[in-house]
Amino acid sequence: MRNIQGVFVDCDGVLYDADLLTYEQIVSAGRLAGVQLGLDWEDFDKVHQDLKKKGFHGFYNIVLELCQAQSIPFNSLAKKMTELLDYSTLQLNPELFTLLQQVSQKKKLFIFTNNTKPHLEKVFYRLFGCSVVQSGLSVITAESTFENGHFYPKRMHGVFAKWCQKLNLIPHQTLMLDDSDNVIDAAKKSGLQYYKIKSTQETTQILKELNETK
Ligand SMILES: [Mg+2]
Which residues pair with 193 in a beta bridge? Predict the structure, then answer.
């Protein structure tokens, strides 16, 4: 880690350990939330394949496409999902919160997640005891990436370059902390510095190091 100017910190699997709330649990809550709102999932595989051909990745892009076709607000689904998920496994982590705030005084730090804003709000309340706004931290969620009817998750081509430009960050002076291989590959290709996180303990360790460096 050298000359770090900007830091992107993933949420799921980085701010809390991935086994406390798994990707599978998140996806099945999404499916159930859709059912409860009357969303027809029949075209899921077809939409998935069509989007893949066009280079669009991610569960939420499929959900968004289905929601748009069936006039169901995506935001309602995203919110309902969070009501169906059990966040009680996430415990307050004041040390992590303090470190994130300290590093963000020195560097441009963003919590950068492919997940939704309602989900991030729930995670913040559990981990930090406050809302995203109250935390004072800057965040990028799926909704922030919405453009022309699609989300642009981190793994997609050109997404990191675009955000670096938008935030006035030099890619090789920007560090991505993420637990997903796809995202790490994308960060690598875009010339970012990166660290593949295996536990929250590692997140804490790296933030400590960043806090100590200039
Ligand atoms: Mg993750």
Answer: 175
Band (pLDDT 50/70/90 cuts) for residue 214 is low
For residue 66, is pLDDT > 90? yes
Model confidence band, residue 175 (pLDDT cutoffs 50, 70, 90): very high
Distance CA 37, CA 70 (A): 11
Task: Give the Å distance between the CA of 12 and the centre of ligand 1.
Answer: 4
Query: Is there a contact between 132 and 119 (Cβ–Cβ < 8 Å)?
Result: no
The reported pTM is 0.96
**Spatial distance between the Cα atoms of 17 and 140, rounded to a whole number of angstroms:** 20
Phi and psi at residue 38, in whole multiples of 5°? 85, 20
Backbone angles phi, psi at 29, to 5 degrees: -65, -35
The number of residues in the chain equals 214
Per-residue confidence band for 2, with pLDDT thresholds at 50, 70 and 90 = confident
Rounded Cα gap, residues 74 and 15, in angstroms:
25
List, as ranges, residues with CB under 5 A of the ion ligand 1: 10, 12-13, 179
Nearest to 33 by CA among 2, 63, 9, 65: 63
